[in-house]
Write a structure and sequence with these properties.
With 462 residues, this protein is mainly beta. The chain folds into 3 domains: 59 residues, no CATH class; 194 residues, no CATH class; 157 residues, no CATH class. The chain is 6% helix and 39% strand. It is built from 2 helices and 27 strands. A 6-stranded antiparallel sheet has the order 6-11-12-13-14-17, covered by helices on one side. A 6-stranded antiparallel sheet has the order 7-8-9-10-15-16, with no helix packed on it. It is elongated.
Length: 462
């Protein structure tokens, strides 16, 4: 940059008009220290009209002064540079000012789907990324795909230290103008959807500095948006000071990943002007269409089976009778080993070939020897009103267009990241959905990530 291997930068914030002429230290970066070279201090003055005057002096080593054109920002917390930011500042919860800090666990007001996983919590890591299952303090970005065991959203992963300057804050919304803004944005970028946001999460890094106490000012934001079914991630960028950083997302085992062009290169400040939706400084990604994209909602509000090997639910009484190939049932059992039965629990972990000419009606979305004592959740829930019935109605009318179908009852059983016996640590996710209008009945089998093994079918009495 600037024709020199050691560009000089201002170690400290620019002055305000009322400060007059100020003296600032000048630094040059080395491979392991942002201020490894120190030159003579210079004088700086802020002038009316949003520009600065510098009095340069000869550097103490072979180097050059460098500058980039930035749109100055005000001192109001709710404004940053010229980026396309969602509201922030007043009403936000702030992270502690620290080097490599992190928020406490943040419980989400609505589950968020991220490429096959459904999360009810997250952490904001000061170093420019979000994690879901646990806090993470890494300040050194790596190349995506990382093939790790962590879902990661990284709008600007770098070594941030806001003890000297900058704020990191967050806020959730379930009503109001921010939801209206999110709805308009998503419908603009994804014109094939009829989207109405029900939840928005905004995390903002406002004029933060890099380590060690560089005095630089970098501003960016990540926004999570959901309507309970579709989910999206927005990256918004304001002024970006030069540094090595990474921008994108990565998933467990890197099944899905994305890197913004130029990641891991030093001094890439073009994020302020780049975009994948023709809005300078904004990148938008849809994140619900991963390995569990077709899953009906599950998690919050579900009844959970005991964690056990070869376990089963207690008897579940239907809120609405269900017709299954000539039989009408008012109860069911969710068996841990990947099947449903009606008249009693069924603990078999060895699948057999259908037709089995047996004496039970059996729905087996994924019959296998499951042991979720180590990991995984098996849960179920019934619905007689709300958005799940709307989703079921739309699905059935799409798949069976000759019907005029309106769901009155839905039963959802989900096996979420369950392990095989013996405590293998594998993660397999699938779901079975029963749908009825009192006359027509349907069974849906939805599949996410599947570890190797299995038998899948529907079996009836003979």
């Amino acid at each position: 940059m600037c024709g020199t291997p050691s560009p000089l930068w201002l170690n400290g914030p620019h002055p305000q008009l009322e400060d007059g002429v100020v003296t600032r230290q000048v630094c040059g970066s080395t491979w392991n220290d942002c201020c490894g070279h120190k030159s003579h201090p210079i004088q700086v003055k802020a002038c009316p009209g949003n520009y600065y005057v510098y009095e340069f002096v000869r550097p103490t080593f072979c180097s050059a002064y460098c500058a980039e054109v930035n749109v100055p920002h005000t001192t109001t917390r709710s404004n940053i540079s010229s980026g396309p930011f969602y509201p922030f500042g007043a009403g936000d919860t702030e992270n502690d000012r620290s080097d490599d800090g992190i928020s406490p666990v943040i419980s989400l007001l609505q589950p968020f789907r991220f490429f096959g996983e459904t999360y009810n919590q997250l952490y904001i890591n000061n170093n420019g990324y979000l994690t879901f299952d646990w806090p993470w303090y890494s300040y050194f970005p790596y190349q995506f795909p990382g093939y790790g065991g962590e879902d990661l959203i990284a709008p600007f992963w770098t070594d941030i230290d806001n003890r000297g300057n900058g704020f990191i804050s967050y806020r959730q919304y379930s009503s109001g103008s921010v939801l209206t803004e999110a709805t308009q944005d998503i419908n603009q970028y994804f014109t094939d959807l009829s989207f109405s946001a029900t939840w928005v999460f905004v995390a903002t890094w406002d004029r933060v500095a890099y380590y060690p106490y560089s005095g630089t000012e970098t501003s960016f934001q990540v926004v999570l948006i959901s309507d309970g079914h579709f989910s999206f991630v927005l990256f918004n960028y304001g002024t970006i000071a030069p540094t090595q950083r990474y921008a994108g997302y990565d998933t467990i085992s890197s099944t899905y990943h994305f890197s913004i062009t130029g990641s891991l290169q030093y001094n890439i400040t073009s994020l302020t002007y780049s975009s994948n939706v023709n809005v300078p400084g904004r990148w938008v990604f849809r994140t619900d269409h991963g390995s569990q994209a077709v899953f009906y909602p599950f998690g919050a509000g579900d009844i959970v089976n005991d964690r056990s090997d070869d376990g089963s639910s207690s008897v579940i009484y239907f809120l609405h009778h269900f017709i299954f190939f000539g039989q009408t049932y008012s109860q069911i059992y969710v068996n841990n080993n990947g099947h449903l039965t009606f008249n009693g629990p069924f603990h078999s972990y060895t699948p057999y070939q259908f037709p089995g000419y047996g004496e039970i009606d059996l729905i087996a979305p994924f019959w296998i020897d499951i042991d979720n004592r180590g990991n995984g959740v098996i849960s179920y829930r019934q619905y007689t009103s709300g958005s799940v019935l709307t989703e079921a109605t739309q699905d059935i009318n799409q798949y069976f267009p000759e019907l005029s179908f309106s769901a009155t009852w839905v039963f959802v059983a989900t096996w979420d990241r369950v392990a095989y016996f013996p405590l293998s640590g594998t993660e397999t996710s699938f779901q079975v959905v029963l749908i009825s209008d009192g006359h027509y009945t349907f069974v849906l089998m939805n599949y996410g990530t599947i570890a190797p093994k299995v038998y899948v079918q529907v079996c009836t009495t003979w």
